[in-house]
Amino acid sequence: MPQTAQTLDAAAVRSWCVRALDALGREREEIDAINVYPIADGDTGTNLYLTVESAARAVEALFDEDAPDAGDAIRAMAHGALIGARGNSGTILSQLLRGMASVLAAGHDGDHLARSLEAAARSARAAVAHPVEGTILSVATAAAAACDGGGSLVTVARGAYEGARNALEATPGQLAVLERAGVVDAGGRGLVAVLGALVEAVSGEAQVRPTGTTHRPVADDTCAPESGPAFEVIYLLEADDPAVERLRARLDALGDSLVVVGGDGLWNVHVHVDDAGAAVEAGVEAGRPYRIRITHFSGVTETRERTQRAVVAVVPGEGLAGLCAEAGATTVLARPGEPPASGELVDAIRRAHAREVVLLPNDTDLRHTAGAAAEQARAEGIRVALIPTRAAVQGIAALAVHEPDRRFDEDVVAMTAAAGATRYAELAVAERQSFTSAGVCQAGDILGLIEGDVAVIGQDLTTTARTVLDRMLSAGGELVTLIVADETPPSLAAALERHVRETHLAVDTTTYRGGAGAPALLIGVE
To answer: Model pTM?
Structure first.
């Protein structure tokens, strides 16, 4: 007999995330295929998957540190969805989870779940500038209405799921574009998958998956995309409430499909516009926009010929992203404490739009994530070679010898050899007292890590860097690569270059700016 949960505790939230991600992973392609509203761009399933992946990663991080309570888990799920929300439906889903969290943080039984679903549907509608029936909003409203009487946790979850399924089947009768295409709403179907995962998490019973069509024959020409704005613009925004209200009005006048979700100073902004620059400028006037994503709806990536080969590189700073982009690579930015998920790497591989892709994770901890992304891309017919680069300096060395005109295998071998011949080091600041391979460090100490292990503990950045550099060059080397962050004193690179000239006469030095978010100093020796 399956175990049923009486309350939505932290373990159940974790299970919900895992099951929702698994369900969306299975159904992603089918959901993408029925995506005809608001733009027939075929990415709703992918966007929902990436949104839930970010939510799941945030919850998993809690369990890495300690045993969280239910309130912490549901808040982490909602926050993770907010910062990782993609597309129209993903943004709305993040607000649904935020609305649920506002109630479930106070109680975790069936009655609280019922009230949380009502709060979720209400808050999601409020976040959309012009709500439309026959969409994920209708499905969310029906889910909440179906469990209005409350009851046990499993009863409420099942009621919400069945109410959502019935509402999903009704969406073609509410929205003409769905009726013409013979499909149900893609975002609504994704929500049904998420609610089905909730039932599985609290009951242990698998749910019947909905289909993507209305089972009515349609003509071959009924699925043509409708005209609309040229760009989708999404960004996170740090701003206060009054500024966001002004932003809503400004963006509403610029375009459509406007969704602004969040609160407490952090917002996720989504809009379809013809003037992408104006949409971003409006965000700058309201506060601090970042993680800006602009997607063109023209279908260029679907119609243009694929290139033969491309490189996708994960980089730890904006300066390195620019450097690698100039070298022709498609980049994925890894921010401190926020490594990219496999879905983001797959998305970058797709954006590279090539038959062959060389993937450079540039981080030991991303080995499994990059491997999963490579497998998924291969399943989509893309030839992917994963070079296990462990640091950004190894990725730069590999990119320097990349030649897209030679045979794929030869190019991969040359890039792998260049990366493997590059020893790497990093300087970091200790956050707390701890035991290391070089002894005990105190909070604030400068740590010199060589090949991932602490080799030097110091108190001064320049002195520690010189010691690390000398140890690396004692084994030989012809070229030193220095990557310095924006926050690092500019005198450090100059001092190290001078030190190499004076003490290692046959060694050349190259310095790059890592930009914001990069480690204080990265060192490569070839």
So the answer is: 0.61
Query: Strand, helix or coil at 262?
Result: strand
**Is residue 31 a contact partner of residue 45, using CB atoms and an 8 Å limit?**
yes
Tens digit of each residue's pLDDT (9 = 90 or more) over 206-226: 655 554 444 333 333 333 344
Least confidently predicted of 159-168, 324-333, 355-364, 446-455: 324-333
Query: How far from 200 is each of 40, 103, 157, CA to CA, in Å?
Result: 31, 21, 9
Asked if 96 and 81 count as a contact pair (C-beta separation under 8 A), the reply is: no
Give the whole-angstrom CA distance, residue 463 versus residue 425. Answer: 15
For residue 503, give Cα distances in angstroms to 466, 473, 480. Answer: 11, 10, 13
Are 60 and 13 in contact by the 8 Å Cβ rule? The answer is no
Measured distance CA(308)–CA(120) in Å, rounded: 46
CB-based contacts of 381: which residues, under 8 Å, 6+ apart? none
Q: Note the pLDDT tens digit of each residue in 87-137.
A: 889 999 999 999 999 898 888 888 999 999 999 999 999 999 999 999 999
What is the residue type of 498?
Answer: R
